[in-house]
Design brief:
Elements lengths: L1 H19 L3 H17 L1 H8 L5 H12 L5 H12 L6 H15 L2 E8 L5 H15 L2 E8 L7 E5 L2 E4 L2 H14 L2
Parallel strand pairs: 1-2
Antiparallel strand pairs: 1-3, 3-4
């Protein structure tokens, strides 16, 4: 819980800087790059999150990896996280930043789960329909789960639209049991 609160504070700090500099999207992309690179490799993740490794060594490695890839602001933010021994929060900070950025830009994130990978024309059609329903800009995050057999499940914030075969079967079962 404490780590999530800290991640929110750091995310809010870089978010406010990005807003002031009118760079919400570029800084978000840079944070996403750092998060993906550092936390997709187990050795690198272990190195950055190990409290016994000195910040100087971590900063040297991150400098080699990112100095030419990041804006000065995001790079300095990354160095600050290492100095404050908060490098383990990079992934959570990026997630919180993305939520703040999307909200500021009027974008709603929709998690779409389908039984099979959705084709691009179909995902564009779904996106357009969701934008029509919500009157907001939608960003889709696609997932595949063969257990739902067919159809889709859409989650947007606290709303859930279950159009899956499994969901419909469960609903039918509940109706039949309620009529007994």
């Amino acid at each position: 819980m404490l780590n999530l609160q800290l991640a929110r504070k750091y995310a809010m700090a870089i978010f406010e800087i990005a807003q002031d500099e009118d760079k919400l999207v570029p800084y978000g992309e840079e944070l996403q790059l750092v998060s993906q690179v550092t936390f997709s490799h187990m050795e690198l993740r272990g190195f950055l999150t190990n409290p016994q490794i000195q910040p100087k060594a971590k900063k040297e490695l991150l400098t080699k990896l990112f100095q030419d890839e990041l804006s000065k602001t995001v790079f300095n933010f990354l160095m600050l996280l290492v100095d404050k021994r908060r490098a383990a929060l990079i992934e959570a900070i990026e997630h919180e930043y993305a939520m703040l950025s999307n909200k500021a830009r009027g974008i709603v994130l929709a998690d779409v789960t389908s039984a099979f990978p959705m084709t691009e024309p179909l995902s564009l059609k779904l996106k357009a329909r969701l934008e029509e329903l919500t009157e907001k800009s939608i960003q889709l995050r696609m997932h595949v789960d063969e257990k739902i057999i067919g159809g889709v499940i859409v989650k947007m914030g606290d709303k859930r639209i279950d159009g899956s075969v499994v969901g419909r079967m469960q609903s039918l079962k509940e109706q039949l049991l309620a009529n007994k």
